[in-house]
């Protein structure tokens, strides 16, 4: 059985999952604190997809923590298949939400110049939330790539 960085039941996998949770929660918190975020469907979609990513990553982090504490091996075909499907579905939803929110943020900031004229829109908060969500997606992309390669080696 291959031992890859970020695999299930390893400390690196636990750290990846906790990073996904941390950046996903930060993205949600910054977006919710921005006034007027609910005016754009893309921002609401970002919050929903980051919520799903946080729940998925937190569940797998708890499973990794349990496997580390009880010295169990999570690298079997059934677990890895579930991890691969869940990671890829979550990664695709998260990437589409981040791209949509980034597009709307660019539209507000650069095309409509809504950040410079009243009523002011919280462009800095939107940009920060999108950046945090992208980092969270990047960590999820790493773990989904590792899960795919682990499944291929079985």
From TrEMBL:
The chain crosses the membrane at residues 14-38, 45-68, 88-109, 130-152. Residues 8-139 form the Casparian strip membrane protein domain. The keyword Cell membrane applies. Keywords: Cell membrane, Membrane, Transmembrane, Transmembrane helix. It comes from the Eukaryota. One of its GO terms (cellular component) is plasma membrane. Pfam families: CASP_dom. Its main location: membrane. It is a multi-pass membrane protein. It is found in: Cell membrane. The keyword Transmembrane helix applies. Homodimer and heterodimers. Belongs to the Casparian strip membrane proteins (CASP) family. PANTHER family: CASP-LIKE PROTEIN, CASP-LIKE PROTEIN 5B3. This is CASP-like protein. The lineage of its organism: Eukaryota, Viridiplantae, Streptophyta, Embryophyta, Tracheophyta.
